[in-house]
Amino acid sequence: MKEYWTALASLMGAFAFLQGVLHAVFPAELRAAVARLLGRLTRAFSPYCYFDVTEMDGMSTNEIYDAVQLYLSSTAAPASGARLSLSRPLNASSFTFGLAASDRVADTFAGAAVTWEHVVAPRQGQGFSWRPLPEEKRRFTLRIRRGDRDKLLPAYLDHILAAAADIRRRSQDRLLYTNARGGAMDARGLPWDPVPFKHPSTFDTLAMDPARKAAIMADLRDFADGSAFYERTGRAWKRGYLLYGPPGTGKSSMIAAMANYLGYDVYDLELTEVSSNAELRKLLMKTTSKSIIVIEDIDCSVDLTNRAKLAPAPAPKPRPSIDGAIDQDGGAGAARSITLSGLLNFTDGLWSCCGAERIFVFTTNHIEKLDPALLRSGRMDMHIFMSYCSFPALRILLRNYLGFQSDDELDRLGDAAAVLRGLEEWVDAAEITPADVSEVLIKNRRSGKAEAMRELLDVLKARAEKRRRGGCGGAAAAPGKEAGGDNEEEEEEKRALESPKEGKEQAGIDSCGDGQDEEAEAKKQV
Questions:
Q1: Domain range for 478
Q2: From the record, what ranges are coiled-coil (predicted)?
Q3: Are residues 293 and 312 in the same domain?
Q4: Measured between alpha carbons, how far is residue 326 from residues 113, 124, 331, 413, 500 in Å?
Q5: Sheet of 265-268: strands edge to edge?
Q6: How many Å from the N-terminal Cα to the C-terminal Cα in the chain?
Q7: What is the mean pLDDT of residues 476-480?
Q8: Residues 92 and 190 occupy one common structural domain
Q9: In CATH, what number is assigned to the domain containing residue 232?
Q10: Which of 373, 374, 379, 344 minimizes the C-alpha distance to 358?
């Protein structure tokens, strides 16, 4: 054993002597050149290509590095056995995973295998800088086969950037924007005021026939995945939805479900706060892609009624204004309110192409009051009638509010099965909205499932009987008055939103009529 240690010490001494001789004979520059030459020979005969994605690009952050980190967080977390780091960014709603130092993860794209390695090395001492760099140098190294280079680059990097943007959008809280200041800008130069959007409505909880929900979801998914289709057909990447029906049928819940399904922000546009077509275009230009622009109760917001039903009135000769809209009263009207032409250009004109992946949603209780030009395809592509509560929608509400786990549990109610059959029989005749059904179930949810369903059945029978009596004509006055209450209130709101010019014209007509009455009265007295 002693001889072994003696031989090892002699060998190490000889190795140290040779190393010293090499350092003395061959300078450091020559040794570095030899090392680079050997590396090039090795890479020349290697079947792989290597690409480094550094964290810092000069003094700024490399966008591709952040995208790769987010992309690998979704790729590595479920299936990889690598060592992962766990983090949660600020204002994020989910956790993200990342590769630890000097660890690897495999991925596939277009049938080709790739390998990512996260390399972390200490940074050499740096001098004084106004913007200090991180203490460690980080980079991702991509290894691919030489034969797959043309197939993967740049398509694979584009895929990573798109996937990272989608992960970033879904992990962060969505926002609800409003134009409370009209078109005025805030300190950041933005006309929109955002608040966190946390509406819990989803397509699973939405009270609607399952077949109709599936069709709407498929249309939304085709739109979100239709970038290549819209580019190939030469159409702007936008789509319009018109939600119409009686109040309380779930139009606002449908908008929230669409936003939660696609992960889009929502812009609630209040037309009464917009004073001109120019401000309307300014608001459109300040919206982001992947967003839903909503105008609720459009028939009550501004005067956009059917032009075919309006009686012609004397007006000054129209002339085009600077923003392209038709000014009907010499320039004063365009500065006072938006026009139908401005709204049409907003939804389907050249300015609607400023951005991509936008959805326009209009809601109304009276579709017959809207101008046909606003309803045609290209502006409102899909018309969705939000009807009264049907029996499939009623089953969804029973699951939501009474805690039924599935339709099978509803069908196995036992004694309450007769109540369920009664609900199916009376729900169509009652013409009740999902909001009214929800209110009945909320009030009786502590009484038990069977008792709440019996109370709902009594309400449906009472409403159906009331409608039947109203249809017979004997007691039609009271139901008709009750049914027309909402319409009268909406008409009063519309009259309150009429332009001052219309008020002046009406006042002139009234004064003229009073003058004629006074003249007739004077002649009668003579």
A1: 391-498
A2: none
A3: yes
A4: 60, 67, 9, 63, 18
A5: 193-196, 175-178, 265-268, 291-295, 358-364, 238-244, 382-385
A6: 149
A7: 38
A8: no
A9: 3.40.50.300
A10: 379
pLDDT tens digits along 192-210: 999 999 899 999 999 999 9
| Residue that terminates a domain, selected from 349, 369, 385 | 385
Residues 6+ apart with CB under 8 A from 59: 131, 133
The HSE-up count of residue 387 (CA atoms within 13 Å, CB side) is 14
pLDDT band with cut points at 50, 70 and 90 for residue 30: confident
Q: Token pair of 25, please?
A: 């004979």
242: pLDDT confidence band, cut at 50, 70 and 90?
very high
The verdict on 341 and 468 lying in the same domain is no
Q: Check residue 127 and give left, alpha or beta (phi > 0: left; psi -120 to 50: alpha).
A: beta
Name the nearest CA neighbour of 207 among 434, 513, 475.
434
Give yes or no: residues 104 and 87 share one domain: yes
Structural domains in the chain (count): 3
Residue 491 has pLDDT above 50, yes or no: no
In this structure, the answer to whether residues 195 and 316 fall within a common structural domain is yes
Strands (E), 435-520: none
Do 156 and 181 share a structural domain? no
Q: Which long-range contacts (CB under 8 A, 24 or more apart) does 184-192 make?
A: 190/286, 191/282, 191/283, 191/286, 192/267, 192/283, 192/286, 192/287
- What share of the chain has pLDDT > 90, as a percent? 33
